[in-house]
User: Fold this.
Amino acid sequence: MKPNRRFLNQPKHFWANVRLVSEQTGYTVRGTGQVRVPTLSEVGGALRALGLDARHVVGPDDEPTALGRILLHYFIYRAQALNEYVKPRLMSAEQARRQFQKLLKILGESDCPIPMNKQKGEKRAPAYLTAMVNILIRAHAEGLPCDYDPRRLTTVTADGVPLRTLARRVDGAFPGAVNPVAVWEIKEYYYTTTFGSRVADGIYESLLDGMELEELREHEGIDVKHYLMVDGRYTWWECGRSYLCRIVDMLHMGYVDEVLFGREVITELPDIVRGWVRLARGRELRSASSAG
Assistant:
């Protein structure tokens, strides 16, 4: 899922309103399995209930202001994107298993890692989403290296000297953890029965990575692509729709370049990896030219 450009360059105070209103009105409509679209009246009421002014979104004639209109359009977009686009792309463990086996049969695992999940007993199995990500990257990386499981912090350098080092380890880096063109996080939860703090923390970790990469881009002019890949229909949709809303918000705040939901890994990742290859090749050419 790529961001809708209409909402990409909104100021920080726009997202302050999105978060606050969403939290106050609720992200979902109980009993319907749907993401909520607050009305203008509910937006104004949510702000007033917190002792805040609502005149920046609700005009004196009870019509939306310019900011109010874009807020309402965003809430509609977010709900439609999740209800109609994301939900059918999230997979159960069995669906992910079948997709993994199909992909393995077509592409083979080559020499890329196929990690196992952390379950025990009958649930012990390959980490399906991570395995599919690894297989697809290997198949489309044109022989370039990839660090599928960095065991060190991501570092960006200038003239051989560390320029920025991210605060935490990412799940993957291309072509490596030092000066990557792309990094990613994978959040697959096929067997989780509740939406616990560990799952929620994963979202905030990706947000931290995105904020650090934003600072790098704004102050050093260096762009490292950032991706989030999630799956597990029961965990994310039945238990965690409010966090899916937060993910869509994070995407449009510019903290991730794309989010791949479930089946999107199979349909979208090949083209994404080809883009990484072009960036890496271009960097190699520039480096060779400078050295010459």
In short: Residues 5-88 form one domain.
